[in-house]
Amino acid sequence: MIDVIWPVWLGRNLTLLFAQRGLRSLTQAYLIIIVPIYLARLEFGAIEIGFLFTASAVSSALLTAAVGLLSDRYGRKLFLILFAMLTSIGALIFALSTDFLVLAVAAAASTLGRGGGAGSGGAWGPFYPAEQALLAEQAGERDRTTIFSAVSFVGVLAGALGSLFALLPAALGLWLGLSLLDGDRVLFAITVGLGIAMTIMVLPVRERITPRPKLPGPRQRWSLSPRTLDLVLRFAATNFTNGLAIGLLGPLLVYWFHRRYGVGGAELGSLFFLVNLATAPSYLLAPRLTRMLGAVNTVVTTRAISVILLAVLAVMPTYLLAAGFYLARMVAVTLSTPVRQSYLMGIVDPRERASAAGLSSLPSQVASSTTPALAGYTMQTISLDLPLELAAFLQAINTALYYLFFRKIRPPEEMPPAKWEEAGPDNPDLSG
């Protein structure tokens, strides 16, 4: 009974990391709604908004790769502190400026308004490699997927609360007579404080900095072991197509809802609140589903379902139908998120986890930086719905590649103990 109320694996460090994830998810949940709508209220068009998020995506890609390489060597906590501070700085600039160039620079530096969207649990951004490795360090092989699912569960519940914050500008207009723009700026001011709180939250976390394996040759300082490099290349290939799809959706999905059905922050905040609540149980079910199907089969199955739902979403005639299909799609997507994260951390050398997370997600980040501008141009000049259909096609390719590349590679918890001991962390043959 005690283990249900307070799991035995939830120590001090994990509690602090869970708390910071909760705060980050809360801020991302309303910023991903408010930032594009705020820019639209400033009378910037879809093309300008697309270019702003392209700049933010390019910056995010470079920062993610840098964090992955540097945090394995210099520590992961340092970078969680840095990006919490950048969140505060970026929000302060958004609250004080209306100049497009200034806002674009602030968005690029802080990646404000970017994230995994409703149901993601705040799992994405340049901090991702450092956080993933730090979480995995605190978990044993048996509890790793459970811990990744639990932190996502905390994040998505916090995201549900954060989605309701998107209602605040309209509420302040009713209560205090503030304009919607001023209400948005109040939210940016709140974000400044939350960024400071995230910084304070992670300061007491303790980590172990384990030296990476030494490799022969002059580039040994930054080189990965052969096995990790092989896995990173496989993940990079699959993540590239997913990144193209993410760039076509991302924050422009909010803009799509806004233009397609005429809904604003209040309606979308309510929808994202419901999505977060509906996806929360998925994170708790993910470990059980993984034990039944295996990690790779779980990812492939849930991804295939989400592809079908996304393709159907684009042709829905009413907002209520579109909202229903979007909610169902996000439930399917969230089932795979902690499984994919835990799977990567389980099959790479623990000393190279942050580097693997950063480098394997780099193609996704780069690819996602190329398509927001294209999506904005397509929505404005060709078809409002076309980017969603293209995203569904690209994610179908991603699903097929994931199965092709990883169907024979099993994480340690899915292998007999003798087999894992024989393979060892440096042996590339981990097929079941």
Outline the structure in words:
The chain has 432 residues and is mostly helical. It has one domain: Growth Hormone, Chain: A (Up-down Bundle), CATH 1.20.1250. It has helices at 2-5, 12-41, 46-74, 77-96, 100-110, 128-137, 144-165, 168-176, 180-202, 226-248, 252-261, 265-293, 295-313, 319-347, 353-370, 372-381, 386-406, 417-423. α2 packs parallel to α7 (144-165) and α12 packs antiparallel against α13 (295-313). Mean pLDDT is 78; it is low at 1-5, 218-222 and 420-432.
Task: Describe this structure in a few short sentences.
The chain is an all-alpha fold and 432 residues long.
How does the SSE layout of this entry go?
Elements: H1 2-5, H2 12-41, H3 46-74, H4 77-96, H5 100-110, H6 128-137, H7 144-165, H8 168-176, H9 180-202, H10 226-248, H11 252-261, H12 265-293, H13 295-313, H14 319-347, H15 353-370, H16 372-381, H17 386-406, H18 417-423
Q: Top keywords for this entry?
A:
mainly alpha; globular; 18 helices; 432 residues; disordered C terminus; Growth Hormone, Chain: A
> Taking Cα atoms only, what radius of gyration do you get, to the nearest Å?
21 Å
Tally the beta strands.
0
Q: Which percent range fits the helix content?
A: over 70%
Number of domains in the coordinates?
Answer: 1
What can be said about the biggest beta sheet? none
Q: Considering the protein shown, what is the CATH homologous superfamily?
A: MFS general substrate transporter like domains
Quick one: overall form?
globular
Distance N terminus to C terminus? 35 Å
- The total of helices stands at 18
